[in-house]
């Protein structure tokens, strides 16, 4: 991924040595160290994302050595996509690996609410560990929050969740000025 | 009004931009009646609103070219200059924005200021679609005596200062003339500035805080910060994560600070309870504040700093210091909450009881305000551009018409509230409006004034 950008034509009044340049470069380099897509910034979360469930005592030497579950994502327009997710992977990671349009602004660091998903079956919702305070803090801000909402980066695939259906929240809300009717043009 | 002479660098910029409209590509030629291909979009402002808009435009339509312009040489708006340095995870989203800018159909132009380098009308003549995403770079003010005393800054200026924004690197706030700072407002920005003032500088040293700010904070004599709000804990605008950070005892929380909250301030009325019933955020904020009020504060030795939550006080005057050179104290009026029949909200009304709070620096964190530009309709009362689902309207009156090809997104559209993610949905709505108008053929007018104006500009360049 290219980090340095050659100056675009409009920027040839670029102020050399300005404060902004130094701190911007420093910030960008620090930010890129924070984590590439799919990984996260907080070490304690890394272990959650990559832990495996120890339910099976025999190992497949030749085939997949990770158990997989089936997960169905339901898009805002109602279309569905069913994918296969290895146990231990987060729903956010699984969505991105399968080109499902689940946003993940903070890449799994519990610093945003954009990977918000709705667990469609309350039985599946109850199979999940309770959200931590940190996750609840982010869910507070989630758009279209429901009783069975969770952050996709905190829902980790486990065998009991096989067949789980996750809905992407309907995003568009009517921001229109109340009662306004524009003149035809 | 005669045609403005274009500055040399702007002429070069227009030349650079112009060829893209006539670039050869497999699907380039727009015939009368067919959709514009490629559709040329200019997004003014490169913060989250601008970048989410660019991303959704690129995804929403095959033949589209997006140019993002910003008056600063560097992109990302408040993600770069507003997010506190001790919140690096909130800045991770720049990775996503960088991927958008790396798209071959997208370009970023820094150092281009709408209103001086380019006028809005020039932009509208150059592009099929212009989306204004330039946010809110001014502040609400109290309009009370003494507001122009030295030592009184808006939180926006202070935040820009410690984040290295080029406009504020010379702010030089005096952090050495006092032990008490007052922050007016109790939203997340207020908590941010309080936290940066109180955080141990060795922790700040490992962040991307501006070096000169770190130096100033190292020699700061501020030991007490007062967070003053007109209303009560139920109305405080901050959210749980930020409160937990100030009150908690985990690794990255604020350390060595005693937090003071008066139990009497926590009394709730039936109207308060109703507000909390309707809002999960308020319930959790109130719970955190209540728990904090009951924590017994150890006797304060000199090592520990203080954070005071002051509720039900509204500022009435800023008073000068003894030598008159800077602010020395604030006059505050006690308030009561009354139901505002019209909106159903509770508003603070003065009780006629006043008190004084000594301080040497005041940070006003009562909200941002957008700036109007020439040629753009503006609702001065709400501080936004009048719009209908992102389509700019000619005025805020009922007889307004839609301005063709002109859209707005982000704080300039909704007002200056919300988090990074709020712009996601805001951008979706505006892009939906643009694509709807595109499907209706509103951007195809090969013989229209736009192309003529563009050719004229090119001749002048």
From TrEMBL, chain A:
Keyword Secreted: no
Any Pfam family matching the protein: Fer2
UniProt keyword annotation of Iron-sulfur present: yes
GO cellular component terms attached to this protein's record: mitochondrion
Domain 2Fe-2S ferredoxin-type: 69-172
Cofactor: [2Fe-2S] cluster
Gene Ontology biological process terms from the UniProt entry: P450-containing electron transport chain
Molecular function (Gene Ontology), one example: 2 iron, 2 sulfur cluster binding
Domain of life: Eukaryota
InterPro entries per record: 2Fe-2S_ferredoxin-like_sf, 2Fe-2S_ferredoxin-type, Adrenodoxin-like, Adrenodoxin_Fe-S_BS, Beta-grasp_dom_sf
Entry keyword set: 2Fe-2S, Iron, Iron-sulfur, Metal-binding
Protein name: 2Fe-2S ferredoxin-type domain-containing protein
Gene source species: Aegilops tauschii subsp. strangulata
Automatic annotation (TrEMBL), chain B:
Binding site for NADP(+): 186-189, 230-231, 242, 418
Keyword Flavoprotein found: yes
Cofactor section: FAD
Region feature (Disordered): 437-461
Gene Ontology CC: mitochondrion
Recorded catalytic activity of this chain's protein: 2 reduced [adrenodoxin] + NADP(+) + H(+) = 2 oxidized [adrenodoxin] + NADPH
Entry's localization field: Mitochondrion
Tagged with keyword Manganese: no
GO MF annotation, one: oxidoreductase activity
UniProtKB keywords: FAD, Flavoprotein, Mitochondrion, NADP, Oxidoreductase
InterPro entries with a match to the protein in the record: FAD/NAD-bd_sf (IPR036188), FAD/NAD-binding_dom (IPR023753), Ferredox_Rdtase (IPR055275), Ferredox_Rdtase_adrenod (IPR021163)
Main localization of the protein described in the UniProt heading: mitochondrion
EC number(s) from the headed UniProt entry: 1.18.1.6
PANTHER family found in the cross-reference section: GLUTAMATE SYNTHASE 1 [NADH], CHLOROPLASTIC-LIKE
Stated family: Belongs to the ferredoxin--NADP reductase type 1 family.
Name assigned to this protein: NADPH:adrenodoxin oxidoreductase, mitochondrial
Organism field: Aegilops tauschii subsp. strangulata
